[in-house]
Write a structure and sequence with these properties.
The complex is a heterodimer of chains A (113) and B (114). By secondary structure, chain A is an all-beta fold. Helix content of chain A is 0%, strand content 50%. Chain B is mainly β and 114 residues long. In chain B, the strands form two sheets. In chain B, strands 2, 4, 5, 9, 10 and 11 form a six-stranded mixed β-sheet that branches. In chain B, 0% of the residues lie in helices and 53% in strands. The chains are: A mainly beta (113), B mainly beta (114).
């Protein structure tokens, strides 16, 4: 069974540009989560989808971040416009049920210059 | 404000000895706790978990202990192996609240010396 995949693995952009991160969860997993780790700090929750619906987006830092999960399969996280403090590693995780173990992807390292 | 804390950024242990990684939390609504292991350039990998109704859970060489009154949990690895060298993250969630988003600590880098 394929794990959670994320694309790209690394993105370097300039401040003010737009970047879109993609996550493909494990097939059949209705729950999809985005997390972010900034500068060696803790991994922080951003938002949670159940199928195509946003269940909890309390961790989204501001309105420059837009997440979508059309059709309840893969998800995208767009940052527009990117700021320096957005640099970090963005992880996606998925689980079958709400209380099931979350399996993480390898992450996308975003560097904003 | 960080609700899950791992106060030791690093730990070195000799191969074959016990590794003890510690974690403290502040939110009394947390009722489920997990440990994840992370290798460089990879995502966190689930290791072991414990519900707040238990005080110990064991899986092979890995045991997690939970002390609810102290809001403290620990991960014991016995015996430690060089392949255990990684960053270990403690995480917690408040499932009774209907949420399963995880709150993580900052991680402890474990180095097992052959």
């Amino acid at each position: 069974e394929a794990g959670v995949t994320q694309f790209p693995s690394h993105s370097v952009i300039e401040k003010g540009q737009t970047v879109t991160l993609r996550c493909d969860p494990i097939s059949g997993h209705d729950n999809l989560y985005w997390y972010r780790r900034v500068m060696g700090k803790e991994i922080k929750f951003l938002l949670h989808f159940v199928k195509e619906s946003k269940q909890d987006e309390s961790g989204m830092p501001n309105n420059r971040f837009l997440a979508e999960r059309t059709g309840g399969t893969y998800s995208t996280l767009k940052v527009q416009p990117a700021e320096l403090e957005d640099s970090g590693v963005y992880f996606c995780a998925s689980s079958t049920g709400l209380v099931d173990t979350q399996y993480f992807g390898p992450g996308t390292r975003l560097t904003v210059l | 404000d960080q609700q899950v804390k791992q106060n030791s950024p690093s730990l070195s242990v000799q191969e074959g000895r016990i590794s003890i990684l510690n974690c403290d939390y502040t939110n009394s609504m947390f009722d489920y706790f997990l440990w994840y292991k992370k290798y460089p350039a990879e995502g966190p990998t689930f290791l072991i978990s414990i519900s707040s109704i238990k005080d110990k859970n064991e899986d092979g060489r890995f045991t997690v202990f939970l002390n609810k009154s102290a809001k403290h949990l620990s991960l014991h690895i016995v015996p430690s192996q060089p392949g255990d060298s990684a960053v270990y993250f403690c995480a917690a969630s408040g499932r009774r609240t209907g949420a399963n988003n995880l709150f993580f600590g900052t991680g402890t880098r474990l180095t097992v010396i052959p």
